[in-house]
Design brief:
This protein is of the alpha+beta class. Helix content is 30%, strand content 31%. The protein has an eleven-stranded mixed β-sheet, with helices on both faces.
């Protein structure tokens, strides 16, 4: 089963692992393996909050899984000492028994991720008093710091994320207040598809339009590259959560496509 929205995201996550030096692989305890249909991304040295990295994507999409697959995924994380991770279930994942197998191995439903897509509609004008520029390796450290702070990846992961600006397949943008980095966001392009990732703003620069403006530049970049579809995601809407990312995504012309369920070890 070919699902461009999942495949381009999966490829971006796999390429993040490919970007790591041997020293980073060792220090962060990184691995990316295929179990059944899933890419199992693991960073054993990162904190339990690092679920944007410690997750299994693609379960049951290429072919129906077995109970053994779920056990093997769970065992992989448990053996590495990772206490919090996501096993992500697309609505089309097979078989239907997956949910009961997740439960059997101590995984319970967590907050899902809302996936979005947009086509080639023009990018709306977005205002900000910050300067937006595409960056290369010279701003890698700042990019890594901003992203790791925003996504709770921990300081150890910053040199890893810092390797994305300037890497083939990636386009990275940053907002600046004068010469000071304020926010950032990455774009991964694979053929006619694009995936936006790691959109973040340093706390003292929030509410100045950085997130929407950086996203607008990434969307325009994808359109200029000839991409036919652009995908992104954020946490699903829940009562009491203002969901600023959700609103900014919709502002840029993205439409909701589906919610991908996340299953994680019980916190009890």
């Amino acid at each position: 089963m070919t699902l461009p929205s999942e495949e381009v995201e999966r490829s971006a996550l796999a390429d993040l692992h490919a970007a790591a030096t041997p020293e980073l692989v060792e220090s962060l305890q990184l691995s990316a393996s295929t179990i059944g249909s899933a890419l199992v991304s693991l960073a054993g040295a990162l904190p339990n909050s690092a679920i944007v990295v410690n997750r299994a994507i693609g379960v049951g999409l290429e072919a129906p899984e077995t109970r053994q697959t779920v056990q093997d995924i769970s065992s992989t994380y448990r053996s590495a000492g990772v206490e919090r991770y996501f096993v992500q279930r697309h609505p089309a994942a097979r078989p239907a028994e997956l949910v009961s197998w997740f439960s059997a191995f101590g995984l319970e439903k967590a907050r899902g991720w809302q996936k979005f897509r947009r086509g080639r509609d023009p990018v709306p004008a977005i205002g900000t008093d910050l300067r937006i520029e595409e960056i290369g390796p010279e701003h890698g450290q700042a990019f890594g710091r901003i992203v790791c702070d925003a996504f709770d990846l921990g300081n150890l992961a910053a040199p890893w994320l810092a390797r994305l600006p300037g890497r083939a397949g990636w386009r990275v943008f940053m907002s600046f207040d004068g010469d000071e980095p304020a926010g950032a966001g990455a774009l991964f392009i694979q053929g006619k598809y694009a995936w936006t990732d790691y959109g973040a703003t340093a706390p003292k620069f929030r509410r100045r339009g950085s997130q929407a403006a950086v996203l607008a530049h990434r969307v325009q970049c994808a359109l200029d590259a000839g991409c036919q579809e652009i995908f992104t995601c954020t946490g699903e809407e829940v009562p009491g959560d203002p969901q600023h990312s959700y609103k900014n995504i919709r502002k840029l012309g993205f439409q909701e496509s589906y919610i991908r369920e996340n299953f994680a070890p019980s916190r009890r």
